[in-house]
Amino acid sequence: MMPRFKSQTPIYAGVILLVNGIMGIGSLLFVNLYVSVLFPQYASEFAFYSAIVGGLSIFVLLGGAMTMTRKAWGLCLAASIAGVILSLFGVLCGVLGLMLSVTGVIFIIFAKKEFE
């Protein structure tokens, strides 16, 4: 029996998710710096925003790593959907992040058969 051909689609999707997660962390750092310098009275109120964006960014980074290894398709799909949500919260590169996230979701859906 011939070995099954594995495409590069999960690798591309994983790289897209990693870039999206890094952009989320960059957005988090930028907003926290901006708020702490210009509006220090509101810094404590942004803790909730920081927790959401930080958690989503870490989850998207984990999903990107799992996508590149072609394991846990459901987790990878959930992480790519979380990347779409993260790009809605993102201050930096919001439209670019949204396009990357949607592309990652599409790539992961098309590559379902390649996951273990």
Describe this structure in words.
With 116 residues, the chain is an all-alpha fold. The protein has one domain (9-37, 44-114). The protein has 4 helices and no strands. It has helices spanning 9-38, 47-68, 73-89, 94-110. Helix 1 runs antiparallel to helix 2 (47-68) and helix 1 (9-38) runs antiparallel to helix 4 (94-110). The longest helix is centred in the N-terminal third of the chain and has 30 residues, at 9-38. The protein is elongated and about 60 Å long. 33% of the residues are buried.
Q: How many structural units, i.e. domains?
A: 1
Number of helices: 4
Largest sheet: none
Number of strands: 0
Radius of gyration: 16 Å
- Mean pLDDT figure: 86
Computed structural class = mainly alpha
Strand content: under 5%
Q: What does the overall shape look like?
A: elongated
The amount of helix comes to over 70%
Distance between the termini: 19 Å
> Helices and strands, in N-to-C order?
HHHH
Low-confidence residue ranges: none
How is the topology of this model organized?
Elements: H1 9-38, H2 47-68, H3 73-89, H4 94-110
